[in-house]
Amino acid sequence: MASDSHSFTPFIPQEEALRLSGLSDRVMALSTASAKLAGLMPVDTRETIAQYMAVINAYYSNLIEGKRTLPHEIRAAQRGEFSEDPARRDLQLESVAHIKVQQWISEQSLDADMLFSPAFIQAIHREFYRHVPDALRELKNSSGEVVAVVVPGEWRAMEVVVGRHQPPQAEDIASLMASFCDVYNPNKYSGDKKAMAVLCAHHRLAWIHPFADGNGRVARLFLDSALKVIGLESVGVWCLSRGLARSSAQYKALLEHADKPRQGDYDGRGELSQSALVDFCAFMLDTANDQVSYISDLLELEQMYRRIQSYIQARNDGRVQGVGGVKEIAALILYNAFVHGKLDRSMAIELCAMPERTARRLLAQLRDDGLLSETSSRSPLYWKIPEHAEPWYFPQLTVGV
Fold it and tell me: Is the pLDDT confidence value at 399 over 90?
């Protein structure tokens, strides 16, 4: 049976459902907390953290798909260091592909019209799969036989069943995706409804299931981008996929729950359940607010200074592998680089409170250890997050899943 956009109504919950659900309050809380987090740090520090979190985002997004490639394995792959096990190597390459597409998206001059277009959604899929090993493009049946191969950027040409949900027929996908982009473009909404539209779109994109494979990853990459487009400028510093992975069973259950048809006259006026869509949006907003709160606490200035001090102490106690001891004043230098995003060399030398030659040796050590970076011998020094500092700078970030 043919499908059209009416098949995934309601597009967003009706006014009365929004008022009774408390979703608007959750959106306001997220907007406020996200803006406050963005204001905690200068742009340079925010960009450094966002680059670091790209690995964390890839780790958790893949974890949702049942693939556990640890951050240190992903970073090794970024350096060109791969496992001798072909299966592990493929998963490393898949994680790197996720990071590359995040970087590619960040380099686009995105606005709502560009993002909410079938061509761009296909481009996200294409950019991901063109970096994925051939073995991970193969679709296999329950007997392990290859039944199809994913074509990067192409709508699926086969019928599928996802759990208890039978997505629309392949022949309807092109028209459905055109309607999807038109319906959910945030420019058509105002106030808190922009966020509602973006979250509802996440489910509806999964419901359409437009690709033969990779729908979950594409949907989450699309969601992250949409949240930025509607003005949540600290997205990337906090990682929604982390929260979704830590509640993966609930996330998947609520996605499936929102596939349900309308449950009677008191469940909205569309084809699908309005109450289930409300439940899904509430979960997503609660998860987002939790992740913003978590990262905000990590980046609180006094707490960050203490963790930098703990890292320096750990180095001097021999508890940090691969690097030796360092003068304790380094904690103050690194903290100021974090607070300001970058340090003029003259200021950094003054902070060292030691003879200039000795100060320059210390700064060179911090640079060689990856804690500071430079773009030239005369440039400012930028705060960075090397792998050996991660457990102290961001404790518990990848623990508990």
Answer: no
* Residues 139 and 150 sit within 8 Å (Cβ to Cβ): yes
Q: Is the pLDDT at 400 greater than 60, yes or no?
A: no
pLDDT digits (tens, 9 = 90+) for 50-108: 999 999 999 999 999 999 999 999 999 999 999 999 999 999 999 999 999 999 999 99
Cβ partners under 8 Å of residue 115, min gap 6:
222, 225, 226, 229
- CB neighbours (10 Å) of residue 40? 17
Q: Which two tokens stand for residue 360?
A: 């320059």
Residue 251 CB contacts under 8 Å (≥ 6 apart), including other chains = 64, 244, 283, 287
Q: Residue 88 is encoded by which pair of tokens?
A: 């592990």
CATH for 301-393, among 1.10.10, 3.90.320, 1.20.272, 1.10.287?
1.10.10
- pLDDT score of 135: 92
Distance of CA 346 to the CA centre of its chain: 37
Q: Which amino acid is at 77?
A: A
The DSSP-derived string for 316-352 is: HTT-STT-----TTHHHHHHHHHHHSEE-HHHHHHHH
User: What residues does each domain of the chain span?
Assistant: 5-299, 301-393
Structure tokens at 188: 């058509």
C-beta atoms surrounding 166 within 10 Å = 12
DSSP secondary structure, 209-275, as one string:
--SSS-HHHHHHHHHHHHHHHTT-TTBTTB-HHHHHHHTHHHHHHHHHHTTSBP-STTS-SSSB-HH
CATH code of the region 5-299: 1.10.3290.10
For the stretch 247-272, pLDDT in tens is 999 999 999 999 999 999 888 889 99
pLDDT at site 4: 81
Which amino acid, one-letter code, is at 192?
Answer: D
> Cis omega before residue 10 (within 30°)?
yes
